[in-house]
Amino acid sequence: xxxxGEARAVQGLRRKAVLAILGLHAGEVVSTGRLVELVxxxxxxxxxxxxxxxxxxxxxxxxxxxxxVRSRPPxxxxxxxxxxTDVAIAERLIGAGLRDGDDAVRARDLQRALDLWRGQPMxxxxxxxxxxxxAERLGQLWLQGKRALLAARLGLxxxxxxxxxxxQLTREHPFDEQLHGQLMLALxxxxxxxxxxxxxxxxxxxxxxxxxxxxxxxxxxxxxxxLRQAEHLDAPRAAAxxxxxxxxxxxxxxxxxxxxxxxxxxxxxxxxxxxxARLDALLPAEWTPPGSAVFVAVVSGTAxxxxxxxxxxxxxxxxxxxxxxxxxxxxxxxxxADTPMPPADAVRGFLDxxxxxxxxIPADLAGLSALLRSQLAGRRVxxxxxxxxxxxxxxxLLPAAPGCLVxxxxxxxxxxxxxxxGAVPVPVDLLTDGEARDLLVSRLGARRVAAEPExxxxxxxxxxxxxxxxxxxxGRAATRPDLPLSAFAEELGRFRTTLDAVAxxxxxxxxxxxxxxxxRALSPAAAAVLRRMSLGxxxxxxxxxxxxxxxxxxxxxxxxxAELDRAGLVVEQRPGRYTxxxxxxxxxxxxxxxxxxxxxxxxxxxxxxxxxxATAQAAAQRxxxxxxxxxxxxxxxxxxxxxxxxxxxxxxFDDECRSLLAAVRLAAELGLDEHxxxxxxxxxxxxxxxxxxQELVATQEAALRALRxxxxxxxxxxxxxxxxxxxxxxxxxxxxxxxxxxxxxxFEQLDDAPGLARAHYQLGWLQHAQRRYRDALSHSEQALAxxxxxxxxxxxxxxxxxxxxxLGQLGEYQQALRLCRDALVENREVxxxxxxxxxxxxxxxxxxxxxxxxQAVACFGHALRAYRELGDRSGQACxxxxxxxxxxxxxxxxxxxxxxxxxxxxxxxxxxxQAAVVRAKLPGEWTATVRG
Length: 932
Description:
The protein contains 43 helices and 13 strands. By secondary structure, it is mostly helical. Among the domains are: 2-78, Arc Repressor Mutant, subunit A (Orthogonal Bundle), CATH 1.10.10.10; 157-233, Serine Threonine Protein Phosphatase 5, Tetratricopeptide repeat, CATH 1.25.40; 273-427, P-loop containing nucleotide triphosphate hydrolases (Rossmann fold, 3-Layer(aba) Sandwich); 433-511, no CATH class; 792-932, Alpha Horseshoe (Serine Threonine Protein Phosphatase 5, Tetratricopeptide repeat). The protein has a five-stranded parallel β-sheet with strand order 7-8-9-6-10, with helices on both faces. Strands 3-5-4 form a three-stranded antiparallel β-sheet. A hairpin with a 2-residue loop joins strand 1 and strand 2. The longest helix is centred in the N-terminal third of the chain and has 27 residues, at 129-155. The protein is elongated. Residues 238-255, 286-292 and 925-932 have low confidence and may be disordered.
């Protein structure tokens, strides 16, 4: 700290921190809370406010001016005038030096600024996070000023003097392209063209090896200019000498143009509150002197989702925050009638708007970009770059100095701009239901929309809540106020596809045309993946399914999906799960029908079904290793996708369930009987354990029809057994009897002993469900005898447990306990974890009935853990009910209620009738709450 030309030391880290924080906010009030938070790094002691006041008193004494640090609610301000700190002076001088003007004056200002750096900023305030961040900011400011000074001195012809310094700086900053460009220029002007080009190649290797990127367009253009020995690279004919005169008055700068190029905003803009808030967050509460970054936002999303409308709406809303103007350009990245705009053309347009005379505008991109940065330095300009194709088209248009804010819209997510330039992603998705309604309200009026809520919902659904499609329909409805909205909803349904229904009068409003602009920009591989994805029958697709449809290896499919995701044509709605909205699906369907031959489409669907069959069979085996594998293998190998491990098999079925159900329906519709029954068979365990019994009925009936067409009688018997079991579960006993006796008859005709044993086993459970326990015991004992004769230890253990359970229902608890204990031993011997879970439940039930509820609780605990481990929701619900009964007999009412409540929560998902039975056990108050 310097007072009256005298350096005065400040003792103590906290005091230094207080002074530094106030100095970096010179002239601004810093609240007491903010000071405490920053000085003590978020870990302030209880007496922090008192300590802060003591530090401030010390600083006033050291400054010999009590008025220098003023108390001004809600905090304090350091009042030392506009140039009272080195930081303020440096930022002002660098801001001036970054503006376009005479190189000698710029060099003088910049050198004066850099001379203010004396060692490492904040070197004696380490350990205070905010000050360390400010030290980093000041380091970047120094580097920014140094680059600008070097550029000015190169403009003066000082390349020979600068060479050693440039070589040192490029070693210290190996990724800095601007410094390397300046070194190349200095070498070139000294006649060392080969060394200049070697510098470019060395940087290129460094960027490739360390960052995996190529040099930017400015540096590539400089290399190209050197190769063709462009005249503009030559040294200035008259080299000037820089003399830094501290007292020399500043030269007057001519007034600059203030452009206002933002297009007309959409009057009826609606929704997008989240995205608007994200953009608002980029605006600081107050504009401060230049900081360390230029804010860039990337507004990205699929075609027709309203990116440009959002950006333009927001730009108009905040235009007054940018007093130096607003620049706009349509970069034509996805244009139906023209090629993407070259960055050089966009820069020339900006320079012209900023009032730069034509004779001062360079011809090459590097010079144009540098001049634009100079023109924007120190100014507050909002720049809207609309419809960008890629990051390379955007980079030459970015300012280098803070104060400006750039909003880029693109169908591409521009991930490299986010990764390298630190751009803030603002993804734009389909409208929500509420936003879609608001859009229609804004176009048609609240009264008309409120009068027909069902029609509004149908319109929004048919338009996939895509703004451009909704706008087309709303436009038609607005021109026909005499027609009800239901007429337009019905019109949408009459067309072959909604794409025909929302075709606009010009390409900009024709949804099909808008999609085509994105499609034509794809690589051939990604375009093929998009088309083939439309053949998938489910709501979304996993990476293995996409690879199978496309007929490519998984890594290649992943690369294409990444391209489609960046282009906004597919959405990775969850990690590894891809989908697109209904209108894009319709567009992709049209494409695949015209671009892919019929046999190619059929082969793709066949590969997909084989993938599902192979993976579902493997996952089912991992889910329940004791289950019988489906005997047949796929006729053709599916795309090689490894089966999920045991712990992920449950999640795989959760993810794929709807797609698998749709695949069964598709295979049945196409007459692919082998795929139909095999896929249905692979799903039985998962559907049963999750209580999806209606889905299990549908898949097994499809399987049975397919097996009948194939003439596969053993398969028909197995499917009939499955259907009998599930119909018994849902209380449709007549159908259960029919299917199970049909299975029994088939197996008797075929002399199929294993099938006969299974049929008796299921008939035993059917009779049990109807409380015909003697008949149930007869079938169960027959099944047990057959399994013993066959030497099938796994199913013998299950039949042994079933027999014991039925004996328990007959009141023969001791015999039931003996048989179930034997079954438990055999379950463990054969590794049947699911059979073991069911047997623990039966053992617990027997103990409970024998008057030992405490032992029963322990047994039920074993069963519950096993069912949870396996993911069997149905089994968990049953055991929880039994566990609640045991707790109730122990007198532990809270534990009983908790078990019953958890049972009800599961049963409510798939068995409301049984849920009501268990709910009746709960205390009245809780029951009333749930029912209400």
